Amino acid sequence: MIEVHVIDVPEFRPMVETQSNNPDVTVTGPTKGYWTIQAPTELVFSRKAMKMKPAVWYGIFTGGLNGEIAEWGRDEVRVIGTNKPL
User: Fold this and answer.
1) How far apart are CA 56 and CA 64, in angstroms?
2) Residue 23, helix vs strand vs coil
3) Domain of residue 50, residue span
4) How many domains does the chain divide into?
5) Helix, strand, or coil here: 65?
């Protein structure tokens, strides 16, 4: 299971809002200042769709994640599951 922890601040709220509309994703929180976004196979975030400034975009994982960043470009990031032990 992939998990992305999102700090509960307005700058990162688009991450929560866009994934809340995805039927394959579970969003919970906020709990102790963080939202948790979970998916079984992959999570894809689009900077342009979320209307994020580049400075915010490069900090989207400051809350932490359980998974592997498979692709991270200027406008899209894809997180996949990992077989590595935690």
Assistant:
1) 15
2) coil
3) 2-80
4) 1
5) strand
pTM: 0.89
Note the maximum CA span of the chain. Answer: 34
Instruction: Classify residue 85: in a domain, yes or no.
Output: no
Report the CATH number that the domain containing residue 55 is assigned in CATH. 3.90.56.10
**Terminus-to-terminus CA distance in the chain, angstroms?**
12
* Ramachandran area for residue 10 (φ above 0: left; ψ -120 to 50: alpha; else beta): alpha
Q: What is the pLDDT of residues 11-38, one digit of tens each?
A: 999 999 999 999 999 999 999 999 999 9
Checking DSSP bridges between strand 34-39 and strand 26-31, what pairing results, if any?
antiparallel
Half-sphere exposure of 58 (CA within 13 A, CB side): 3
